[in-house]
Amino acid sequence: MKRTDFPKEFKFGTATASYQIEGGIEDRSPSIWDEFSHTPGKTKNGDNGDVACDHYHRYEEDIEIMKDIGVDAYRFSISWPRVMTDGIKPNEKGIDFYQKLVDKLLENNITPFITLYHWDLPLYLYKEKNGWLNPDIANYFQDYASLMFNKLGDRVKHWITLNEPWCSAFLGYFVGEHAPGHKDFQESFYVAHNLLRSHGKAVIAFRDIVKDGKIGITNVVTKVESLSNDEKDIQAAKLVDQYINGWYHDPIVYGKYPEEAVNSLKNIKLDIPENDFDIISQTIDFFGVNYYSRQVISYDENHPLKFKHAEGPLPKTEMGWEIYPKGLYDKLVEFNNKYKLPLYITENGMAGPDKLENEQIHDDYRINYIKDHFKSTLDAIKDGVDLRGYFIWSLMDNFEWAHGYSKRFGLVYVDYNTQKRYLKDSALWYKNFLLNK
Ligand SMILES: N#[N+]C[C@@H]1[C@@H](O)[C@H](O)[C@@H](O)[C@@H]2O[C@H]12
């Protein structure tokens, strides 16, 4: 498989997120992840993003690395608390960081794709305004989005409103594994809804400000399969697919939540104002697909949503996720047929047992993972999927949320003691692939 097997305009890139790589906390106000990661017991080894990969001070070096690898595009997120103090007052120093980042990318012919929200909500908005639980958050988000569209929209033409709202809502407000660490089932549905409303308000602003741009939303897209052919397991898997995938895509395209999932939530209030879906279902230009693996599901009477995960038999990554490239093909074809929107794979990659030895990292497992998922991508394109690009997660090892720095997803190895970067064998492979070798 060669690069020239893909459409000429197909964009190969890599991706990161602000809190996971920037550090530079001295020049921004705090986010919910600053408070969460500094709360004992919330992250592995008590790791936090105070320094991370020090990208705030090393962005030029990191862009040079991307240039050397030869990526066409780079997906990164803006830190809301960096560009708006407490999420409300524009901070010119923070805005200037992203101006310089964008200009350096463009100088190097790397197309910027910006994610507005990759989980680092300004702490003030959470503490003083109740964060995503407050319907008014959509207005704060629209103000933030408008500021960024006005400041960068002349040079940045690809925008993503939210990254994985399912994680923000479900992991942040029900499971409690992510910031702000709530464990309230009902809250997680209110949060999901306000995230989608915020998405819609940002799209409305975008259409006024960046008339020649493209905007979408990125969700985690998981292949959900039933553990058995038992009707209860099949139904449980179908509902999980609706909770994870349909819940964050159907309202945008169809203007409603998935019916069976809504009907299954007997004791959940979904008192939603009717015109909310007019806001949520603003026409978008693409869906971003973050694909990592599958979930194997069986029925469980004792779970609020009547399901439980089963351990799959396939080889797994360091995250314990099965390596399942067929799932990517299946979801791309399904989404193409169901939503009829252009797609970007905005994240795909793996955490590996990466070891620095003589300034090298031999990660053949990651090269094989990427090759297998590139094959699924190419097969989907050949079968008619309107797929526009693929961003490997991640450019470099970084702060992996509750796992801290214990999981390495990067094409580039980061020695956190020295902040020295080392291209892994997978980065060298990607470089040759991009040169069509
Ligand atoms: N875990 N994991 C890796 C990766 C995470 O580092 C990203 O921030 C998320 O968008 C998504 O969950 C995927």
Commentary on this structure:
This protein is of the alpha/beta class. It has a single domain, classed as TIM Barrel (Alpha-Beta Barrel). 42% of the residues lie in helices and 17% in strands. It has 15 helices and 15 strands. It has helices at residues 18-21, 32-37, 55-69, 80-83, 92-107, 123-129, 137-152, 165-175, 185-209, 231-254, 259-264, 276-280, 325-339, 364-382, 425-434, and strands spanning 11-15, 73-77, 84-85, 89-90, 111-117, 158-163, 214-220, 223-226, 286-290, 294-299, 307-310, 343-348, 387-393, 412-415, 420-423. It has an eight-stranded parallel β-barrel, surrounded by six helices. Strands 8-10-11 form a three-stranded mixed sheet. A two-stranded antiparallel ribbon has the order 3-4. A hairpin with a 3-residue loop joins strand 3 and strand 4. The relative contact order is 0.14. The mean pLDDT is 97. The protein binds ligand 8P2. The site of ligand 8P2 has 10 residues, from loops. It is an enzyme of class 3 (hydrolase). It catalyses: Hydrolysis of terminal, non-reducing beta-D-glucosyl residues with release of beta-D-glucose. The active site is at 347 (nucleophile). Keywords: Carbohydrate metabolism, Cellulose degradation, Glycosidase, Hydrolase, Polysaccharide degradation. Its EC number is 3.2.1.21.
